[in-house]
Specification:
- The complex is a heterodimer of chains A (80) and B (672).
- Chain A is of the alpha+beta class and 80 residues long.
- Helix content of chain A is 16%, strand content 36%.
- Chain A is globular and about 25 Å long.
- Chain B is an alpha/beta fold.
- Chain B folds into three domains: 156 residues, P-loop containing nucleotide triphosphate hydrolases (Rossmann fold, 3-Layer(aba) Sandwich); 94 residues, Helix Hairpins; 351 residues, no CATH class.
- Helices cover 64% and strands 7% of the residues of chain B.
- In chain B, helix 7 crosses helix 8.
- The mean pLDDT of chain B is 91.
- The chains are: A alpha+beta (80), B alpha/beta (672).
- At the A-B interface, helix 1, strand 2 and strand 4 of A face helix 3, helix 17 and strand 9 of B.
Chain lengths: 80, 672
């Protein structure tokens, strides 16, 4: 998957950014993220990408989690 | 008698605390979704009952295990809620706390993981939290048992009052709350949670709560229109969001205000240990090889290095001194020839033949417990998600799979935490292909005889075969049997922690106990039955074993098994009896090929099989019909006979095809 403009996917590991918009992601996933306190305005950092298009590991306010690239491509961020 | 319930986010230590407070040994681990059932225990000072529930983030459930917790709150009426909160993740944990405060029952907060918060450089002012929320707060380190006594004292004191907690959600929502409350007022049964709580859940469109309310369609329609009206009024007042989002944001704002006062994060530092370990074990290139190496080491340790030598010692003890003592004892009390044969050949042979593999099984359980308790489990799901996704599964399915290596029954239960119903069903159907510890004695026996020099590798190949077939079948099933449904993957990665040796040994023991219990029930009963079937025949006491009932039963299937390389009545009989529990395959073999000592037994079996036939037999045992207990839990969890029968027959077919390919293919390649 190619890196997209201003989205979480493509952000370099270690750079922190603020979530500005959720695109077309599964509502259940959006709720799961909200459950973990990840919503618009949250600060998010990519820890590392898995090889071969696998998931990525993120950090948000001390919480580590993994999501797929497809979903990360739908999350718009602004680098602060 | 009081009844208290433990409620909190996933992986916050509820079950650890439950075990301390009720002196129980429930299953604990370091990932989200360990507890998938409601568990009830008695507080250890006998002052009442305590219920442990699966972890939830909000009262609005997404997966099956969360549904259990949410339903419990609406339909049961605990007299006290014990809300366990992760101090190192206060902000996210307090969201559930707010919903629980609205529930209107007495509540106490157990502020757990104070040690983790401290090591992250966070200072938590628990008194400030208590005064902001108006409920008692007890700081805890549940893993070490710190604070548990104080909490127990508080729970049993019955002095906790229902909190006076009220959030103002603004005119539009407040009006809707009082309108819904009025509708509910007359129809709600006694002991229900507060009307305000239910009204809020309905405004948040929590279907689980709506379903569990015993109200008529007319009332439901009225409530629906109140909700719609609230949304319109909200929009008119200039708020652009839905009612749900509005409620969410009001709560979140308040939580942030409270956290700002309670948490001092000036010295916050990253969890360096977790970062260091992750940098190695989830490395983009080395992560997967490290995982595979870890698995290989597991097998080397279980078989070659430690398990087999210990097992040989135990074998020597059981077939030597124990057998001799029992026989001498029986002679001394004047037992009949029949009784002596039943006890030494049937019971000591059948049960002892399985018990000698205790070392291998316990080593495997110890390593599985280590993976469960360390935090590595969640990382494996991330690293393997891509492979799983290609197969139509979810990375989270690896948790049931890995647990399934211990025993398929808890593996199938663990699938409850998978959110999508298609992926959950697929996972449950495929867990039986994970080679459980009951199949281990079969491999240990056969690999020990035929592949003594490369036992670990041969056994590793069987485990891998199970995994590879599970992935291929997942693809096949999802292409033809399930409508394509949306899939997403999200897993929390908990901080690593060094498993405490007490916890580790306890969880190993809890898993191993199941095996020992089976040895005393199914395997014992099976051995007696099998021995009797070899002793008796259509014409009374069988002259030789070939005239026995067992030979007759096994012979029915022998011709069918011929193309697989083990078309003998002995194999047929062992496989049929193995349906009770797969260890019984070994018991049957030991009884049938009875010899006075192990070298005799080895000689007998070595004559009956060639190495290729032995491998084909092991593959069949790996894949064929799940055992009785697994079939039972499949029926319960899928709630469908159709899927249960499907699972029985597809695995039987798969076993037949794979053994056929291996045996016939092997012969073509010139193996014997």
């Amino acid at each position: 998957m190619s890196a997209c403009h201003n989205c979480l996917l493509g952000l370099k590991p270690g750079i922190s950014a603020e979530i500005s918009h959720f695109g077309a992601i599964d509502p259940a996933l959006k709720r799961r993220l909200a459950d973990l306190g990840i919503s618009i305005g949250s600060n998010i950092t990519i820890k590392r990408y898995c090889p071969c298009g696998g998931p990525l590991m993120l950090e948000c306010s001390g919480q580590l989690l993994g999501i797929r690239q497809k979903e990360a491509a739908e999350i718009k961020v602004a680098v602060s | 008698m009081s009844s208290a319930a433990l409620i909190g986010n996933p992986n916050t230590g509820k079950t650890s605390l439950f075990n301390t407070l009720t002196s129980s040994y429930e299953y604990v681990g370091n990932w989200s979704g360990v507890t998938v059932e409601k568990k009830v225990g008695q507080l250890k000072n006998k002052s009442g009952a305590l219920t442990d529930l699966p972890g939830i983030y909000t009262l609005h459930p997404l997966s099956r295990d969360e549904g259990i917790a949410a339903e419990y709150l609406v339909t049961d009426s605990p007299s006290l809620l014990v809300n366990i909160v992760d101090a190192s993740q206060l902000e996210r944990n307090l969201y559930l706390t707010f919903q629980l405060l609205e529930y209107g029952k007495p509540l106490v907060i157990g502020l757990n993981m104070m040690d983790v918060a401290k090591s992250n450089g966070l200072r938590i002012h628990s008194e400030t939290l208590a005064s902001s929320l108006g409920v008692p707060v007890v700081p805890l380190v549940a893993r070490a048992g710190k604070g548990a006594e104080e909490l127990l004292h508080l729970i049993s004191s019955h002095s906790i009052q229902a909190p006076d907690f009220h959030i103002d959600y603004g005119n539009a929502v407040e009006a809707a709350i009082s309108n819904i409350s009025r509708e509910l007022n007359s129809v709600l049964p006694e002991h229900s949670p507060s009307e305000r709580f239910i009204a809020l859940q309905l405004l948040e469109r929590n279907d689980a709560v709506l379903r569990s309310l015993a109200i008529g369609d007319e009332v439901k329609a009225k409530i629906q229109s109140i909700c719609d009206l609230a949304e319109q009024r909200l929009h008119k007042s200039g708020v652009e969001t839905t009612v749900q989002e509005h409620i969410h944001s009001v709560r979140t704002k308040l939580i942030r205000d409270i956290c700002a006062r309670v948490v001092d994060a000036t010295n916050r530092k990253p969890n360096t240990l977790t970062e260091k370990i992750d940098a190695i074990v989830t490395h983009p290139i080395w992560g997967i090889p490290i995982f595979l190496l870890f698995m290989l080491l597991t097998f080397m340790l279980t078989f070659d290095w430690l398990g087999t030598p210990l097992s040989d010692l135990l074998e020597g003890f059981i077939s030597g001194p124990v057998s001799t003592w029992v026989d001498q004892g029986l002679v001394a009390v004047g037992a009949s020839e029949f009784t002596r044969a039943l006890l030494t050949e049937g019971i000591i042979g059948g049960v002892g033949g399985v018990l000698v593999f205790i070392p291998q099984i316990f080593i495997m359980f110890l390593i599985i417990s280590f993976i469960e308790d360390s935090g590595y489990m969640a990382r494996i799901t991330v690293m393997m998600d891509k492979v799983m996704e290609l197969a139509g599964l979810n990375g989270k399915a690896l948790i049931p799979f890995i647990i399934g290596f211990g025993c398929n029954v808890p593996g199938i239960m663990a699938s409850r935490s998978i959110e999508q119903s298609k992926e959950r069903m697929l996972t449950m159907l495929l867990v039986p292909l994970m080679s459980c510890s009951a199949r281990l004695p079969v491999y240990a026996l056969f690999a020990g005889i035929f592949f003594a020099r490369s036992q670990a590798l041969i056994v590793f190949s069987l485990y891998l075969l199970g995994i590879v077939l599970a992935l291929l079948l997942a693809k096949l099933f999802s292409m033809f049997m399930f409508k394509d449904s949306k899939s997403f993957f999200m897993v929390e990665l908990p901080p690593y922690r060094m498993p405490q040796s007490v916890t580790l040994f306890r969880s190993t023991w809890e898993k191993g106990k199941g095996f020992l219990r089976k040895a005393g029930t199914f395997i014992l009963g099976g051995s007696v039955l099998i021995w009797l079937l070899t002793y008796l025949g259509p014409g009374g006491v069988a002259e030789t074993m070939d005239d026995s009932f067992l030979a007759w039963i096994g012979g029915l299937f022998a011709s069918m098994l011929q193309p697989l390389g083990f078309g003998t009545w002995q194999s047929g009989a062992a496989l049929i009896t193995g349906f009770m529990a797969k260890e019984v395959v070994v018991s049957t073999m030991v009884i049938i090929y009875h010899a006075s000592d192990m070298s005799g037994l080895i000689g007998q079996i070595a004559m009956a099989f060639t190495p290729l036939q032995a491998y084909s037999f092991m593959v069949f045992v790996l894949l064929y019909t799940p055992c009785l207990a697994t079939v039972g839990v499949l029926r319960k969890e899928t709630a469908s006979w159709k899927w249960t029968l499907f699972s029985i027959f597809y695995s039987l077919g798969l076993a037949y095809i794979m053994s056929f390919i291996i045996y016939q293919g092997g012969r073509l390649l010139g193996f014997a």
